[in-house]
Amino acid sequence: MVVGDFPIETDTLVIGAGPGGYVAAIRAAQLGQKVTIVEKATLGGVCLNVGCIPSKALISAGHRYENALHSEDMGIKAENVTLDFSKVQEFKAGVVKKLTGGVEGLLKGNKIDIVKGEAYFVDANTIRVMDENSAQTYTFKNAIIATGSRPIEIPAFKYSKRVLDSTGALNLQELPKSIVVIGGGYIGTELGGAYASFGTKVTILEGADEILNGFEKQMSSLVKRNLKKKGAEIITKALAKGVEETDTGVTVTYEANGEQNKIDADYVFVMVGRRPNTDELGLEQVGIEMTDRGVIKIDKQCRTSVSNIYAIGDIVEGPPLAHKASYEGKIAAEALAGHPAEIDYLAIPAVVFSDPELASVGYSEQQAKEEGIAVTAAKFPFAANGRALSLNQTDGFLKLVTRKEDGIVIGAQIAGPNASDMIAELGLAIEAGMTAEDLAMTIHAHPTLGEITMEAAEVAIGSPIHIVK
């Protein structure tokens, strides 16, 4: 131990200040714990700084630009629409700054000690926190690990000036004329779509049969169609083989349909998934059990194999979603404070900010059938909704999945404008054990997109009003 490195004591120590860690810290402090949070980079983690928030700012700006160019159907025609991409980046940075400043204010307001540096476990009650200049020991009664994940790097596509991960893709200061996106999952589709909205020529290479493989084909095909309208090319069943880089661009080699092809572009974005940040924490020092994939094993209270250490977010099983991490953070904080909280993923939503937006919660029709649950699937199209028509955004549908025996809502899928907001009502319906009749009998304001939920519920109970049965 460094001379003068006297251990600092705390009740609960949280490692990582992303959407899992900072939420866990706040909830633990609310429950009477003395809390210390350690973050090696920036408060807010990947989500706030280089993920969810900045990508949505970029996507929103892209939609504004598109609307300015293409609103002739509504009688609006703009001359000489210009794009200052550096101002777009300034807007995005301003949004991020407001939110990260807000997180700092919330932590301080809850009397949480914020420590900058990298944490390393010494034993089950001790960590060392190191920065460039010093090291400090902390002792704790309980710890919550919330270190998140990082983009996976493909050996043939090492990150560089023109081979970018999601962070680099979000921070380009000039609008590229062309990009190749490797990976048609939600990150690749969102960022590819955002740049396509600004007029960049986008090529998406996806190894599977379809982009957005986790969603029903009827949903992903709408996104595919709109990407193509924006001039994007989508190549599925494609294997990215390698890249040649020059000062001015890249040449990507890929294989599809048994043939080798090349594409020239300004940049290549590598969006093939994320890896849990569990490898540099000294977890082996403590004996924390992990899976072969490097994720930490937890119980229903987010407790690891070491009883006073908890783990949440991207470093445990399940999808790498910010809202999942926040939810688990609250559970872990309540569990260590002695409350009987347990995780329940029944109604965890998944959202893609594509065009149109996609959202799902609970069971899909297919998943229900695979589990032997007899269900009814009821659909209602956005094209039959007054608000969607007035927005001139009629692509899409809402599908309600209900149990045949009692009409209870067990799942929903939405493709359409504001799907990301609309899915919340369906999540609540599932959590509350509501039936399709409960939704159908709930008065929804008119004219709103929210009425589509009510209309689909009416289809489910066999009494649709605004489509013919």
Automatic annotation (TrEMBL):
All copies of domain Pyridine nucleotide-disulphide oxidoreductase dimerisation, residue ranges: 348-456
Entry annotated with the keyword NAD: yes
Cofactor(s) this protein cannot do without: FAD
Enzyme Commission (EC) number: 1.8.1.4
Superkingdom: Bacteria
Binding site for FAD: 56, 147-149, 314
Catalytic site: 446
Organism of origin: Mesobacillus subterraneus
Example of a GO biological process term: 2-oxoglutarate metabolic process
Ranges for domain FAD/NAD(P)-binding: 11-329
Cellular component GO terms held in the UniProt record: cytoplasm
Gene3D superfamilies: 3.30.390.30, FAD/NAD(P)-binding domain
Protein name in the entry: Dihydrolipoyl dehydrogenase
Catalytic reaction equation(s): N(6)-[(R)-dihydrolipoyl]-L-lysyl-[protein] + NAD(+) = N(6)-[(R)-lipoyl]-L-lysyl-[protein] + NADH + H(+)
